[in-house]
Amino acid sequence: MIATLIRWSIANRFLVLLATAFVAAWGVWAMLHTPLDAIPDLSDVQVIIRTTYPGQAPEIVENQVTYPLATTMLSVPGAKTVRGYSLFGDSFVYVLFEDRTDLYWARSRVLEYLNQVQSRLPAAAKTSLGPDATGVGWVYEYALIDRSGTRDLSQLRALQDWFLKYELKTVANVAEVASLGGMVRQYQIVLDPDRLRAFNITQQKVIDAVRKANQETGGAVLELAEAEYMVRASGYLQTLEDFRKIPLASTDSGVAVRLSDVAHVQLGPEMRRGIAELNGEGEVAGGVIIMRSGKNALETIRAVKAKLAKLKLSLPPGVQIVPTYDRSSLIKRAVDNLQEKLIEEFIVVALVCVVFLFHLRSAFVAIASLPLGVLMAFIVMNYQGVNANIMSLGGIAIAIGAMVDAAVVMIENAHKHIEAWRHAYPGQDLQGDEQWRVIGEAAVQVGPALFFSLLIITLSFVPVFTLEAQEGRLFSPLAFTKSYAMAAAAGLAVTLIPVLMGYLIRGRIPDEKNNPINRGLIALYQALLTRVLAHPRSALVVALVILVATLYPAAHLGGEFLPPLDEGDVLYMPSALPGIATGKVGQLLQQTDRLIKTVPEVASVFGKVGRAETATDPAPLEMFETTIQFKRRSQWRPGMTPDRLIEELDQTVKVPGLTNIWVPPIRNRIDMLATGIKSPVGVKVAGTDLQVIDRLASEIARVVQQVPGVTSAFAERLSGGRYIDVRIDRDSASRYGLNVSDIQSVVAAASGGENIGETVAGLERFPINVR
Fold this sequence. Notes:
Layout: H1 2-11, H2 13-33, E1 46-52, H3 58-73, E2 79-87, E3 90-97, H4 103-117, E4 126-129, E5 138-146, H5 153-168, E6 174-181, E7 185-191, H6 193-198, H7 203-212, E8 217-224, E9 227-233, H8 240-244, E10 247-250, E11 256-258, H9 259-262, E12 263-269, E13 274-278, E14 285-291, H10 297-311, E15 319-326, H11 327-357, H12 360-384, H13 390-403, H14 405-424, H15 432-458, H16 469-493, H17 496-504, H18 516-534, H19 536-549, H20 551-555, E16 569-572, H21 582-597, E17 602-610, E18 626-630, H22 642-652, E19 662-663, H23 665-675, H24 690-704, H25 730-735, H26 740-750, E20 754-761, E21 764-770
Parallel strand pairs: 7-21
Antiparallel strand pairs: 1-3, 1-4, 2-3, 5-14, 5-15, 6-14, 7-12, 8-9, 10-11, 13-17, 16-18, 16-19, 17-18, 20-21
């Protein structure tokens, strides 16, 4: 069958060349449209459920929200892992699905089960699904700063929330734009209990009055003077004076009691669980671009940058957008580096072919199969959805050496046949039909064997396809692209290569013995082969000794799931002790950022503590996440390396109570997604008693600190939060006719307050808080 295919290709060589041109053009198109990323996305198929329960302590959130949700999601079809995180005012439930589960099918199943549990959740708990993104979807981050100093953090946050956020969400493949840092403007109504009691007005009556005063409605239409007028009654609260004029009641003498008589109305910041800081210079507002799962990261970042360039023109004077994390630079470096290596491989293979074949046009025949095979691999990659990253392109790099083997052997055999024909017909020129006959015989002689040998190499990576979970997602792109390239080379070897040989192997073909390199290598090989065959036992003993000698280094080589990747940026991720105040953690953030910025190689420091407004960031307030961008390597001090730079940063940032952790951004998110731990190596302790778990975790941290190679060890605390417990005396409450809920509502309003609505000012919405 293969021999018939070779003869058909030679007989229909024009069709073969035409098909080659078509496939080459198709391959170029596929290569230009293949998504680019730095590394394969190792994330599991996940659906995140975020539930906001304002003002509630983590234990209350755990009992009333996280536990019911997590236990319900255990029975979702295809779910393999359910993780729950209970934080102050927020619950995060991560549902991880089996491999090859469709993301949107998984989201629909979670929604079905979410409807079942909704009735068991508190009325104030608001549940929503997270974005259709993965844990490594954070592709771009930026900060908003005001160089003029005329705008405060609330105004910068308003620009982010009500202008930049919605504009950037229109960019293709952006799943979510998460706001972080700054302060959310809030209309705060601070009630005076003495005045409320003097006017006999309850807190609930104040809340009802504010809600009724903040409405807008329509009154159908009126026809006047042959025109139609739509009636509307505007009643949204716009200013602090509007709040103060809200009527609550009237006295016996007919004097109105207004809100200003019983409360102080002011503008202030909403309680926040996240802070952002830039370069140790002070707090800023910012945003995170979260890419939709499976999309082209490089194209998405380019589109975001183009959109931001347009939006900058609409920002107020003095306000600037400062990029603080940009994955496109890593993608470009990784892909450009691999492209350079591939080009170098092409050149080396071409030189080897020229040196050993000793015929330039014959070498071109062998080299032609390389780019065509690579382009054919890109065609399959594009339609299969395999990204171009360091693993998939690495598979092509591995295949290049073997892709050219069949062509070289076939060309060598054609040289032998032409040499034999010239010895049989001295003085005659080989051309026309006779040349095509000789080329065809040479190709048919070795073509079938070469085709099946390449096919065997193609199937050599089949065991890799049996890998599952993260291992499969990491290595399957390499196995796919290597197999596609080898399969393409096998097909080209029995179709295009014979045709190119007929066109290009012409003129003076040197004999093999005339090549001095071939002659020397053959002589060396013959001498070595003769000696080995003369002493077979000695040869076997030497081979066995070499095999045994490799056992010791192999046993001490060590291993790692993912090789170290220099991402160019680094995350500084210490953790403070639980219960730290917002003001103190902001002070520590600025202090550490200022220390990091003193290192000459650091270009920018974007500090984040707590969480951004997204379901993909379940970080507690005590967790730092500082993104460090370095300058170009040409601007580093002589002799400085990434490892030495991390050591210097570790020595520079020494803050009591903080344990330093330095990790690459992508690697960190992969680790956190896979294990829930923010460091590459961690130990999980499970049990029913939180105090025992905390004690064991602290003991483990002390022990592993002594292990060689460990730079820092930190035991995350499950307990340690500080509480002020209000214990209700039910007997005393009943004497005053008060129920537990009445007292609890007063307690909730007395400290943090309660958001009872929001003002509407154009596109902007700001919460109204009563306390």
